[in-house]
Amino acid sequence: MRIPRPGIRGKILICLVVVLAFFLVLALIMQHESIALSREYGASLSNYHLVHRFRLNLGAFHALTDRYLRDPLSVKAEDVYAGIASLNAQYPALVPLENISILAEFEVRATGYGLDAYLPLVSRAVGLRAAGSPDYYQVFVKATRIEGYLDVYLNRMLSELMRSGEETYATLSRRAEMLNRTILISMILASILAVVVVVLVAEAITAPLRRLAREAEKLAKGDLDAGIVEVHTKDEVEKLTRSFATMATSIKEMVEGLKEKAELEKLLHEEELALVSMGKALREAQFMNLQEQMKPHFLFNALNTIARSALLEQASRTEALAMGLATLLRATIRDSGPLSTLEDELRLAHVYLEFQHARFGSRLQWKIDVPSEVHSTRVPRLMVQPLVENAVRHGLEPKVEGGALSIKARMRKENLILWVLDDGIGMSQERLGRIRASIVAALSLRSYEKEKSSADAGEGLPVPKPEMDGENRLVEGTGIGLVNLATRFGLLYGDKCRFDIVSRSGRGTLVRVVIPVGGATE
């Protein structure tokens, strides 16, 4: 079974665990030795207190017995016998002290022999005193002499324990000092080793990264042959260097492919320019032919004749319609530049609505809410009438009971905002999405033309043309379509204009146009 090699994080964790484990072992050793030293010193001190406490208890017992023998009424005999039992019970605790030294062993045994002689004499003296015999005092004198010997034995035992304790304390001090010195040296060596290991691990990680950074700088400066770094660490650094080498190779292949594609696009662009020039000449010829066929002056003269005849016949409505139609035709075919005033556009929209009112009668209602201070604003030609025509044809005309249309315009900071609202049949969300997508593509044509010109001048790679939902949709029916209008907005204002449509099926449609004042390119 193959054991996987640790990655960067694994190496760092292993290094950290080893260092922490070493310091933890040192701490445990130091704690264990400190506890052992404390126990040894505590045992020595406890032995001293044990002997001292036994000596004090023996002296207190002897004084209690003496007080009883002098005045039996002041002390109970039971208290004296309880003291005898207590001393007998305390002496076994002194027996283990024999192991300290030979002198301690002698004193412990001497104390035991003395107690064996002392306590029976005290008990006998108390019994004689209780019986009223005068011999109790001689017995107690013997017991007092033995109590003096016991006090000497215990005192020498305390001295021996003190001497042994001092030796133990000196030994423990030397051991503690040696332990502290050993731990300090070990910690210093461990710290040095830890620093060396950390430096080696860091160098193993960062060295290939530095080489990779140098290769990345070469690649950023255009050296497509850079990016090859040999690393065999079996961790994330090796994966990173391999991925970087693969990326550098891919970039080199992609750049070479783009160069070949640019050459091909250049050839295709030259052919496209030739085809565009031919198409432009063809459209101009078709327009001139159509214009020659229409004979606009003949149509205007005919409409004026109809209007004069209607006037003579007192058909004012027919006269107004004829004059309105002449106005519409004149605005459609004349070439007076891309801009006009908002007042002229509103007048043209009003003429169109009057003309349509003759068809629909009371089914068509409208309202124009535009302050007079914005009438002189320069706007694209045929801006309002196509929006009104679109609302009437597609929103109000299919509605049996007809509807109303509202035109509103306001100045907001440096922008003119135009709203065209109808309460017609509206449109489905699917159709609204297609129209919005076409309008967005149309508004992008200006940036496409600008980037394409830069590419033609050698400033960049070929720019893809925005996709549109069929170029035959630029003109819908006989009027100028919304996409055509959006295209003109894009060419005149670029990304500074907004063209939004909101519609709900069965509730109507709102068209909102935002254009900068004075920001058009004529």
Overview of this protein structure:
The chain is an alpha+beta fold and 522 residues long. It folds into two domains: 8-208, A middle domain of Talin 1 (Up-down Bundle), CATH 1.20.1420; 338-349 and 359-516, Histidine kinase-like ATPase, C-terminal domain (Heat Shock Protein 90, 2-Layer Sandwich). The protein has twelve helices and seven strands. It has helices at residues 8-70, 77-90, 102-131, 136-220, 236-294, 296-312, 316-333, 342-360, 384-396, 429-443, 445-456, 482-493; strands at residues 339-341, 364-369, 378-380, 403-412, 415-422, 498-504, 508-516. The chain has a five-stranded mixed beta sheet. A hairpin with a 3-residue loop joins strand 6 (498-504) and strand 7 (508-516). Helix 7 (316-333) packs across helix 8. The two termini are 78 Å apart.
Write the layout of secondary structure elements.
Layout: H1 8-70, H2 77-90, H3 102-131, H4 136-220, H5 236-294, H6 296-312, H7 316-333, E1 339-341, H8 342-360, E2 364-369, E3 378-380, H9 384-396, E4 403-412, E5 415-422, H10 429-443, H11 445-456, H12 482-493, E6 498-504, E7 508-516
Parallel strand pairs: 2-4
Antiparallel strand pairs: 1-3, 4-5, 5-7, 6-7
Helix pairs in contact: 1-2, 1-4, 2-3, 3-4, 4-5, 6-7, 7-8, 8-9, 10-12
TL;DR?
The chain has two domains: 201 residues, A middle domain of Talin 1 (Up-down Bundle), CATH 1.20.1420; 170 residues, Heat Shock Protein 90. It contains twelve helices and seven strands.
How many H/I helical runs?
12
Find the count of extended strands (DSSP E, 2+ residues): 7
Pattern of helices and strands: HHHHHHHEHEEHEEHHHEE
CATH architecture term of the largest domain: Up-down Bundle
Mean pLDDT: 77
The overall number of domains is 2
CATH topology category name of the largest domain: A middle domain of Talin 1
For the largest beta-sheet, the strand count, sense and barrel status come to:
5 strands, mixed
Instruction: Sum up the overall morphology in one term.
Output: elongated
Strand order of the largest sheet: 2-4-5-7-6
Oligomeric composition of the shown chains? single chain
Helix % is 55-70%
* Rg calc: 58 Å
Percent strand? 5-15%
Global structural class: alpha+beta
Instruction: State the end-to-end distance.
Output: 78 Å
Text of the CATH class of the largest domain: Mainly Alpha
